Structure to design on (159 residues):
């Protein structure tokens, strides 16, 4: 910085070996690696379970939204919104659905309870297990995120 009125610049990486092993730099925020490991693990598990739940949800959507079940795409959109598996507006729904299957526009994982209620056979119990585990992970993740230690880059630099 050439003058006192400009903004400070921040590095892309940390130079200190101890800092690099203990901290992760993201922009101007430093995160202590040891406190962030559980959050990373839980987010990975959450993504894996959500993907499994989506696969079961796709089958439930295919069963519920069979071709010819709804007279218009608007009626289909209204049903999807009522079920909580689509949150966009009608115009966007038309764009996404144009020439594509219904599941391409919908997000059944947005309503895990609906997936459980509309899954068939063994998928229902699997969906129930996944839904319960997702709820548990959400609680664990909130607690873990509260324990993550962060600092601004300037705070660490001065220590």
């Amino acid at each position: 910085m050439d003058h006192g009125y400009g903004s400070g610049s921040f590095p892309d990486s940390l130079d200190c070996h101890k800092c690099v092993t203990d901290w992760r730099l993201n922009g101007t925020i430093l995160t202590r690696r040891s406190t962030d490991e559980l959050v990373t693990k839980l987010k990975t598990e959450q993504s894996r379970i959500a993907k499994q739940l989506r696969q079961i949800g796709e089958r439930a959507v295919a069963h519920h939204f069979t071709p010819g079940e709804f007279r218009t795409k608007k009626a289909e959109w209204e049903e999807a919104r009522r079920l909580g598996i689509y949150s966009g507006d009608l115009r966007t729904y038309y764009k996404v659905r144009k020439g594509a299957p219904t599941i391409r526009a919908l997000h059944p994982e947005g309503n895990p309870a609906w997936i459980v209620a509309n899954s068939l056979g063994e998928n229902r119990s699997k969906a129930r297990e996944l839904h319960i585990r997702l709820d548990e992970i959400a609680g664990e993740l909130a607690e873990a995120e509260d324990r993550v230690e962060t600092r601004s880059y300037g705070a660490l630099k001065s220590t």
